[in-house]
Amino acid sequence: MSDSEIHSESTSFPGSSSSSSSSSSNTNINPPEIDYTKLPTKKQLKMKDLPAKSKPWDQVELPVDALWLTVKECEFLSCVSQLNQGYFKSYNVELGPIYFGKIGGEEGTMKIALQRCKMGPDDAIIAVKNAARVLSPKAVFSVGFCGGLKDNLKLGDVIISN
C-alpha cells in the first residue's frame, strides 16, 4: 500500500486548518500537529528527585496492569512524571530496580511497573521476557524514540508494532 493510498482521506480536527475527503473506503484520520511549547509544564524530574530507598519486594502488588519499558534517562523520567503520587522503587534479583505506581483517577486506576533496559532489540527481548514472567503485565509498552526506523519520524509520533 502506498503513502497516497494510506493518506487518501483526512478529517479536520478542531483547530486544524484544512480538511479533504475522498470516496475511498480507506478511512485515515490525521490528527493535528501539536505545539509542544504550549503544553502545561510540570517540574522536570531528575534522578536525584526519585526515592532513594526501596520497598521490600513482598510489598509489591502483583500482577501489574502494564509494564513501561524505557532505555534513556529522559524517557524514564518522563514516565515517572506521569505516575500518581505514592510511586515507589523495589528491587528484584531477576529484574533489578523497578518503579511501581498508578495512573488514573476517580474513574479508575491502573498499576504500572516501570523498568529501564539496555538499548537494542536483544536486551529489550530479554527484559520483557523476564518482566512478563515475574510481573504478569496485561500489556507492555516500549516508551521512547525510534529514530532509527525512518528519517521522517519526529517528536510526538506514535509507533505501533504488530
UniProtKB/TrEMBL annotation:
Residue span, Nucleoside phosphorylase domain = 95-161
Low complexity biased stretches: 9-25
- Return the annotated region ranges for Disordered: 1-40
- Which superkingdom heads the taxonomic lineage of this protein's source? Eukaryota
Under what name is this protein listed?
A: Nucleoside phosphorylase domain-containing protein
Species, as recorded: Porites lobata
Q: What is the lineage of its organism?
A: Eukaryota, Metazoa, Cnidaria, Anthozoa, Hexacorallia
